[in-house]
Amino acid sequence: MIKKVLCTTLCALTVGVMPISAQANDIGMETATAASVVGLLPQTMASYWGEDGINVQLSMGQTLTKSLLKVATGKLDSAVVPTPAFYALQAGKGPYAKMGEKASALSKNVRALFGFPASMYHAVTWADSGIESWEDAVGKRVYIGPPAGAANAQITALVKAGGLEPGSYEAVKAPWGVASQSFQDGQFDVYVGSFGLGSQSLAEMSLQRPIRLLSVKPENRVPSKSVGMADGVIPAGTYPGVVNESDVYTFQTLMFIGVNEDMSDEIAYQLTKSYFENVSKIAEGNPLMKHLVSADPFVGVAAKIHPGAARYYAERGIEIPDEYK
Q1: Which residues, if any, are the signal sequence (predicted)?
Q2: Segments forming the whole domain that contains residue 172
Q3: What is the pTM (predicted TM-score) of this model?
């Protein structure tokens, strides 16, 4: 029996990479900012995993394209993986372009436990900026995510679905952690941020100064599968200081919990089992995660399912799609 231990959460922005654990009850995991579903899910689950005997040493504020590479090379046990980042690793493109065929080979070392819909992109502009639609943002400065993240391609696809072609605006890249303040300081005109629906930080911003949310065109509501997103809606009235009177169409990011293929079947099984047994509890504790309860367990999954996770699905009678077996 795996000995039960307390979970340790490392909230530092940068930590040393933890090698794949020799002890079966101790693993390293990386994720992004705590302000999003991407960070909230593993941070909240860490205590439940600890109760079930898995000590997850969680490092937050990481660039997930880099975290994925650490998992693929065996330098890290697990990470939250953006779906398009895995596709890029498979193809040796994007942030892995210089690696060529080596990137594709490394992608075969990654397995998935489960997927989940994460945050929604909110395209924010000040209500008095004169920008009432994406067409009004021609020639303007638009924040498209951190320099090395998977978000660049996603936000570019979102902006295009709104009606702006690449090159018709000035794309600004900066770390997630400084983006909100940079927008408030006037460093760009449109801030495309990743937020859980009903985000408190965005609500507070809207109360300081009225904001407008930009929508994708109705005919472009369904994104291409290759960008790793799903269609989403921000209902009118979600935020107190937003001037939009109708629903806003946007895109929702998709993620999966990725692990190195050498993770033991028992740990992979327990991580998966604990999540599904406690997802209702974490949803009750934070409204930003209430959508996780009804989510398809394979939404956003791009890698093959780990045998340990497959064991859990078999016990529950959940059929794994052939592409992930």
Answers
A1: 1-24
A2: 119-253
A3: 0.80
